[in-house]
Write a structure and sequence with these properties.
By secondary structure, the chain is an alpha+beta fold. The two termini are about 25 Å apart. It is an enzyme of class 2 (transferase).
């Protein structure tokens, strides 16, 4: 009944990245005739290059270049055979040198992505389990999708959350032989580290616990012989740790390396490791360059290269610290992340630095949460101290200007990233003397006529409807049915209302708009853990309502400022309430707020379509049928009119106590089935309050053939004071629903009742668009905008959805 279109993760990513591409900060092309590593030319402008991942600059080393040239001249551009048959002559030398570096024979793969695809399905047995850090590289997460085909549990934890990790270990210990935790050694965006010392302690505490590290960003600039961050911390490789490194990025060549101390396992991976068996091997030029780089790593030169880079990192850290900039994870990593919070600030800042002659990387969703948008700055041996000093000066100068131009602030950035500040300063949201914002906590504090004129024209949003909502939810004893209300009115100096809306704060299920398959998985868990995957949400509107939850004047000269003021105010409320997500919902797809909202750190998702029926007056069934399409007319006569005679239809203004109990049970039947929009069930008190409100009435259907007097279907309908009829909830006995087309009959009886009342507008709500369209409803696509503190929940739900598809 409640089929809806679900948001596609790829669509959301495309939407965000397309906006960045449009403003000229992504999908750029270098125009140089040759590279030095120090500079790069884009759109005719030469810039200092602070965006490389070749941290030691070896990709420009003359020895690597000459080795690659010699390899091509000797062996050609490629050796087109699988390594399972034969490796070209240079492989032996490379493997020997890599083994000298690590003291362990390597497995060499085409790249780290193919390496993960080769290793993970071979390494993980059917009786094992996997736990992913939710920021582990995409290539690791993607390889783990193959495990789900085999029924292997793949869990996810919040980034570096050791308590959550230990809980997952305990949960998996009774059903898994080995439990593998997969993480990056050095994370590519923030430059922070895996807590290796603590992870090693967990591996000592739990014998089943094993570790799998992707350390491609920790290579070369760290560790003895440049063996990387992970090896620098573990020193020697035990059997319960597997490490993936790289021959590209800082190593300066191409390819990847895999290390495990179990010889039998190593042979198994090499014998049948997917891409290792069926994909082409590294080109001779790549192997030749890697041999030259390995020679450097085995010499004392690697120490001086590391020391030189470490000096530059320390120098840059000092410069940034003096400027008091929001740099995340200040450590000895060559990766720096300057927090911007909102995409529009990041776009502004990148464009400013481009003009000054500095190339930096944009860090944006899905690599980071969209409200954690920022700038990734990477140092390399190519950068000179004077370049670094000039960059630090440019950052210090342009950072506050970018904030000012985009209505941002350092305090907002600290809040977005959870950066603790010594002096707590509240944001003064209303800085514009032309506007002021009123906040109220009850509809009773707002003029009823004004509210009804501006906000109360649809759904339950008239004054009486808001009174009903507050009476039900504001002091409800059940926290899943409890909401705080916040009303915002923004006026100009002449006291004219430019914008009006309301928000509610409460607990939602995280899978509210996930697919039914995901919700069914989660509901099984909630039988023993009712609050599993739930969050505190500050949302425009209320879960009980739908439609346009705001009034605005887009033509007003201060309309854009009013919107920005509202976003500032609700973001401050979001932070003060410590909510998990902030949601602006039920907008039309082409709404004029779209660009402004997304620029402030929200991403857009599809909502279920809304259904509105403009009920033109009709006197006979034939007259109503004539308003439908020919196909819908046949459907109406065959599947609705033909069954109407089976029903007693009553419209009741009040129900008895027993009828309320019956009505509530029928509602729960539907709510339990309707997992496409998965919310907490409303308690019986909500329905008792309906019974005491004059604006509610109940369309009750019972079967004439049925011996028992109890009804089998009910529509809970609200009469809006401004000529709107709202069939808000429905209840059904599924024992009779299919045989007698009960749902369709309830829809039609609602239309019939609205026609009797002379009400032209029926707010048919969300979902079941196919059935409602057949009765003449118009379908309106809707979107929502979400701001989240991290991507964990969204990525977890996407993982669960992919798991179901794989099954």
């Amino acid at each position: 009944m409640a089929k809806i279109k679900h948001n596609n993760f790829i669509d959301t990513v495309d939407d965000v990245l397309s906006a960045a591409k449009k403003v000229g900060v992504l999908h750029l092309y270098a125009e140089d005739q040759s590279f030095t590593g120090r500079t790069i030319q884009i759109k005719g402008k030469k810039m200092f290059h602070f965006g490389t991942t070749g941290y030691l600059g070896l990709e420009q080393d003359i020895r690597l270049k000459q080795a690659a040239i010699r390899a091509i001249e000797a062996y050609g551009t490629q050796f087109p055979l699988s390594k399972s048959y034969i490796s070209h002559p240079l492989y032996t030398e490379l493997e020997e040198k890599i083994e000298k570096m690590y003291g362990i024979p390597p497995i060499i793969t085409k790249n780290s992505t193919l390496g993960h695809l080769a290793v993970i399905p071979t390494l993980i047995r059917d009786e094992d389990g996997v736990i992913l850090d939710h920021q582990v590289h995409w290539s690791v997460q993607n390889a783990c999708q193959l495990l789900k085909l085999r029924g292997i549990p793949v869990e996810m934890i919040r980034h570096n959350n050791l308590q959550m990790l230990e809980d997952k270990i305990k949960n998996l210990s009774n059903r898994c032989n080995k439990i593998w935790y997969m993480a990056d050694g050095v994370y590519s965006m923030y430059g922070d580290y895996a807590p290796i010392a603590e992870l090693l302690l967990l591996s000592q505490k739990y014998s089943q616990f094993h570790l799998y590290f992707d350390d491609v960003h920790g290579m070369s600039w760290k560790g003895k012989n440049g063996t990387g961050f992970v090896f620098d911390n573990i020193k020697s490789l035990p059997e319960n740790i597997v490490v993936v490194g790289t021959l590209s990025k800082t190593f300066g060549a191409s390819g990847a390396t895999v290390f495990c101390s179990n010889e039998k396992l190593r042979d198994k991976i090499k014998n049948f490791g997917g891409p290792l068996t069926f994909s082409a091997q590294l080109e001779p030029a790549s192997v030749g360059a890697a041999i030259a780089s390995a020679s450097i790593h085995l010499s004392d030169e690697i120490n001086s290269l590391q020391q030189d880079l470490a000096h530059k990192i320390h120098y840059f850290n000092d410069l940034l610290q003096n400027a008091k900039l929001p740099i995340l994870s200040q450590n000895d990593s060559p990766v720096f992340f300057l927090g911007m919070a909102t995409p529009i600030t990041a776009y502004n800042f990148v464009q400013r630095l481009f003009k000054e002659g500095f190339f930096l990387n944009l860090g944006i969703y899905p690599a980071v949460p969209i409200k954690n948008t920022g700038i990734r700055i990477t140092l390399s041996s190519h950068n000179k101290e004077e370049d670094i000093k000039a960059l630090a000066d440019a950052i210090s100068y342009h950072f506050p200007k970018a904030l000012e131009e985009t209505n941002n602030s350092l305090i907002k950035i600290h809040q977005a990233f959870g950066i603790q500040t010594k002096n707590k300063i509240k944001i003064k949201a209303n800085k514009d003397p032309e506007l002021y914002c009123e906040e109220r906590n009850t509809i009773k504090a707002i003029d009823a006529k004004l509210w009804n004129k501006l906000m109360g024209t649809q759904n339950l949003l008239d004054y009486e409807g808001m009174l009903y909502l507050e009476s039900c939810f504001s002091t409800h004893k059940d926290i899943t049915n409890q909401f705080d209300f916040y009303y915002y009115t923004i006026r100009d100096q002449n006291d004219e209302v430019i914008l009006m809306t309301f928000f509610t704060f409460g607990i939602w299920k995280d899978d509210m708009l996930a697919t039914e398959s995901v919700s069914r998985q989660l509901e099984e868990i909630r039988k023993s853990n009712p609050m599993y995957l739930t969050s505190k949400i500050l949302s425009m509107g209320c879960l009980f309502t739908e439609g346009k939850h705001y009034y605005d004047q887009p033509a007003h000269p201060l309309a854009e400022k009013a919107l920005q003021l509202l976003l500032d105010v609700v973001e401050e409320k979001y932070n003060s309430l410590q909510a998990d997500r902030l949601i602006l919902r039920d907008f039309k797809e082409d709404n004029h707020w779209n660009k402004s909202i997304q620029n402030q750190g929200y991403f857009k998702i599809n909502m279920p379509d809304s259904c509105i029926l403009q009920n033109k007056p009709w006197s006979t069934y034939e007259e109503f049928a004539d308003s439908l399409s020919s196909r819908s007319k046949k459907h109406f006569k065959k599947e609705i009119l033909a069954y109407e005679n089976h029903y007693h239809v009553l419209v009741k203004q009040q129900l008895s106590d027993e009828e309320i109990k019956r009505a509530h049970q029928l509602y729960k039947n539907v709510q339990a089935q309707n997992l496409a929009i998965n919310t907490f069930p409303y308690t019986i008190e909500i329905f008792e309050n309906m019974n005491n409100c004059k604006n509610w009435e109940f369309i009750v259907l019972s079967l004439k053939e049925q011996q028992e007097p109890s009804f089998i279907g009910i529509m809970f309908c609200y009469k809006n004071a401004t000529n709107a009829y709202v069939p808000e909830l429905i209840g059904m006995d599924y024992n009779w629903a299919k045989e007698y087309h009960l749902y369709r009959q309830l829809l039609f009886q609602t239309i019939k009742r609205a026609n009797q009342l002379g009400i032209s507008n029926i707010d048919f709500g969300l979902s079941a668009t196919f059935e409602k369209r057949k009765l003449g409803a118009s379908i309106i696509p809707k979107v929502a905008y979400i701001q989240a503190r991290d991507n964990y929940v969204l990525e977890l739900l996407n993982t669960l959805q992919n798991e179901h598809k794989l099954r």
